[in-house]
UniProtKB/TrEMBL annotation:
<dbReference type="GO" id="GO:0009055">
    <property type="term" value="F:electron transfer activity"/>
</dbReference>
<dbReference type="GO" id="GO:0009063">
    <property type="term" value="P:amino acid catabolic process"/>
</dbReference>
<dbReference type="InterPro" id="IPR033948">
    <property type="entry name" value="ETF_beta_N"/>
</dbReference>
<comment type="subunit">
    <text>Heterodimer of an alpha and a beta subunit.</text>
</comment>
<dbReference type="InterPro" id="IPR000049">
    <property type="entry name" value="ET-Flavoprotein_bsu_CS"/>
</dbReference>
<feature type="domain" description="Electron transfer flavoprotein alpha/beta-subunit N-terminal">
    <location>
        <begin position="27"/>
        <end position="222"/>
    </location>
</feature>
<dbReference type="GO" id="GO:0005759">
    <property type="term" value="C:mitochondrial matrix"/>
</dbReference>
<keyword id="KW-0249">Electron transport</keyword>
<keyword id="KW-0813">Transport</keyword>
<dbReference type="GO" id="GO:0033539">
    <property type="term" value="P:fatty acid beta-oxidation using acyl-CoA dehydrogenase"/>
</dbReference>
<dbReference type="InterPro" id="IPR014729">
    <property type="entry name" value="Rossmann-like_a/b/a_fold"/>
</dbReference>
<protein>
    <recommendedName>
        <fullName>Probable electron transfer flavoprotein subunit beta</fullName>
    </recommendedName>
</protein>
<comment type="function">
    <text>The electron transfer flavoprotein serves as a specific electron acceptor for several dehydrogenases, including five acyl-CoA dehydrogenases, glutaryl-CoA and sarcosine dehydrogenase. It transfers the electrons to the main mitochondrial respiratory chain via ETF-ubiquinone oxidoreductase (ETF dehydrogenase).</text>
</comment>
<dbReference type="Pfam" id="PF01012">
    <property type="entry name" value="ETF"/>
</dbReference>
<dbReference type="InterPro" id="IPR012255">
    <property type="entry name" value="ETF_b"/>
</dbReference>
<comment type="similarity">
    <text>Belongs to the ETF beta-subunit/FixA family.</text>
</comment>
<dbReference type="InterPro" id="IPR014730">
    <property type="entry name" value="ETF_a/b_N"/>
</dbReference>
Length: 259
């Protein structure tokens, strides 16, 4: 008999993908004040996939619970409301101070504690966040939990005896892996097309449960292991030169030592 799915979906509030990031005046980080933020695009895929598993009845035992979780400042509640408007049942907000960041290992430890507390048997999260691009949290979480993992999923299928088959894109083709629950899956762009949260669902999401907790509730403290010394803009690219004809091109290449 297949067990019911209890899905934990970590989401992160990041600078919107359409915004061009700028370095702050102190050159210590990217400027975040007054900049549009939204849900990390890879996490949108995770929420969408979780909701589709329920809607399309893809798992034999059904979906008992979809819980979104995010660690961040007070405004991180916005992305949790979006996740609930997309179809998550409830949410957990691990409150951090404005400007406080967590490294992937701390996030993984927090998610491990959350998965155990919520009795989750499937964690679906984005393969990376577009702010630090570390792509480490899912792998670290699977290691801490001792669960199998399938990263960069472009297709997720369910079989008998709580098995999950995941197709992922690799250099030069695709790779298919199969494992049994409990499991960690990280999502890639070809997995699905996330839905827009409709106004009625946004209104309904306001009535869904959003628990506020601190890292201390999971027995953790936020102790960074890395220190950013300096952040700078990339050097401006030099413009290219123009040549009149092929002879001019050949002469220029010889001048540059390319021929």
């Amino acid at each position: 008999m297949a067990s019911k799915l209890r899905i934990l979906v970590p989401v992160k509030r990041v600078i919107d993908y359409a915004v061009k990031p700028r370095v702050n005046k102190a050159m210590t980080a990217v400027e975040t004040a007054g900049v549009k933020h939204s849900m990390n695009p890879f996490d949108e895929l995770s929420v969408e996939e979780s909701v589709r598993i329920r809607e399309k009845k893809r798992f034999p035992g059904g979906v008992e619970d979809i819980c979104a979780i995010s660690a961040g400042p007070p405004k991180a509640a916005d992305v949790l409301r979006t996740a609930m408007a997309m179809g998550a049942d409830r949410a957990i907000h691990v409150e951090l101070k404005d400007g406080e960041e967590m490294e992937p290992l701390t996030v993984a430890k927090m998610l491990k504690a959350a998965a155990e507390r919520e009795k989750s048997n499937l964690v679906i999260l984005g393969k990376q966040s577009i702010d630090d691009d570390a792509a480490q949290t899912g792998q670290m979480l699977a290691g801490l939990l001792g669960w199998p993992q399938a990263t960069q999923a472009s297709k997720v299928e369910f079989g008998e005896n709580n098995s999950i088959t995941v197709t992922k894109e690799v250099d030069g083709g695709v790779e298919t892996v199969k494992a049994k629950l409990p499991m960690v899956v990280t999502t890639d762009l070809r997995l699905n097309e996330p839905r827009y949260a409709s106004l009625p669902n946004i209104m309904k999401a306001k009535k869904k449960k959003l628990d506020k907790v601190g890292l201390g509730d999971f027995g953790l403290t936020n102790e960074p292991r890395l220190k950013v010394l300096k952040v700078t803009e990339p050097a401006p690219r030099q413009g290219g030169g123009k040549v009149e004809d092929v002879d001019g091109l050949v002469a220029k290449l010889k001048e540059l030592g390319a021929l």
